[in-house]
Amino acid sequence: MEFGILGPLQIRDDAELRAVPAAKQRVLLAALLVRRGQVVPTELLVDIIWNIHPPRSAATTLRNYVMRLRKGIGRAGERIETRAGGYLINVEAEEFDAHRFIALRDLGAEALRRGEPERARTLFDEALGLWRGPALVDVDSDALRRAEAERLTEARLDVQECRLETELMTGQHAVLFGELRSLTAAHPERERFWVQLMTALYRSGRQSEALTVYQQVRGILDEEFGVEPGAELRTVHQRILAADPELHRPAPAAAGERPSTLLITVPPFQLPPDLPDFTGRATGTADLTRRLDAGSRHAPVLAVVSGAPGTGKTALAVHAAHAARAGHPDGALFADLRGSHLDPAPPATVLRGFLLALGVAPDAVPAGLAERTALYRSLLAGRRLLVVLDDAADTGQIRPLLPADPANTVLVTARRRLADLAGAHAVHTAELPDADARDFLARAAGRARTAADPHATAALIRACEGLPLALRICAARLCARPSWSVRDLADRLTADGRLLDELHAGDLDVRCRLAGAHDALDPAAARALRLLSLADTARLLVDTAAWILGESPARTEELLEQLVDAHLLTGGRPGEYRHSPSSVRSPAS
Q: How far apart are CA 108 and CA 152, in angstroms?
């Protein structure tokens, strides 16, 4: 059985094609396919099908759509399952054309890295052959077009660029003029197509036409986008002017020769998936997205999302990064810096991963940190990439990973505010307000369950104190226990001494996150945290804390500031600090 979205929505059962004539059912099927094997929450399906303007009867109507879709697509309907809070479709990777396309793209890129352009061209042709038209062309959903069709369309153009590059590498430049002129006309913003057209013309003895093309694209970029040609275009222009003999060499290095340092590859896109039930943070998301799209003439745009463990720093950063993706056509890099662990990721290791993603051959990656940083910054010059550095330990870990070209953008998450990172725009995550917390629980655990007992829902939110991690754990536990009511879980959370025992689900664990924050403290600050947790008050004055710790007021304030920086205390007015012994983040817990 085959399922297709690379063109009109299609189901092929053996040799028989199954049509889905009803428009809303096509949207429903497409929404399930793009998240195959995952439960798609009912609330998200409602938003996708009705473009965020659902009728009052949306939940009932959705059930009818699911029933009709199951009946209308034959055996394929058996793949659709009803689960707690939503629906899923069981489709294997090889049965889904979008997955096969991405897999073939990645295999082709790997063949290019190994210096096998003929095999790469075959794989790229096979990938492009899966397309039957624009992705999701007959699916009327703004949300799916933005989230999926645009992503796949960009990936298709990336593969076309790489396939054309293999033609140039194997000396097929003379047959590319028509295709490249069509692609440059349709996508004038993609400078690689222009580079390839100029190269093909030059290799065919048409130097003056190649130079004319450069003037043409320069005028288009200035008039339509207000920018100058990028580094790659400028470089090929200079090489043509200088009649560089190396530009005539179409073939890759001969057998036995050292491969090129930089191999052609698809633009990297390493962002984790966005959360389908991301809720709230409207101000922070808008602020971050504006900042990431702003650009700068002098230095890369730099933003830092900081906050206590479990407040959703990574979720906010990934959500904003996806929203800003269109403004970074050269890709997105992502690295988990493990700053909250005892073994943070060394910058040299992170750089090696970035260089490989940017197309550097493994044996061409420099050995030293300084050399890797220099090559990394050189590769990012003239490009517009988004670099996301998640869970940074401190500024020292970040500095070697910062690009120099102002066209690039960097987004960092860290528990500490990183105030010593010059030019950084700061965004702080805190607990979700009650309204957002209720909305999140309703979306993630099911509106019917939370609406059935609003008092129990309110008690659960109070117990979690709006901490996103705790709320997500509660939603996960409710989804895993369809027979539980919200009251059942709220009672377990509020039982004496059981709060942190209940706040875990799979690899989500509030206690573990808090232990990480504690373990990162130096011994003196950790001792202060343990002693101050015994104070039976939410308000701590420096003199009182100094008496408890047996330290001078100056030393005590220094220790308290370390705890504030780690988000284990809250700084108030000068000389005053606060903590809540009943909080899920309480040192006493």
A: 16
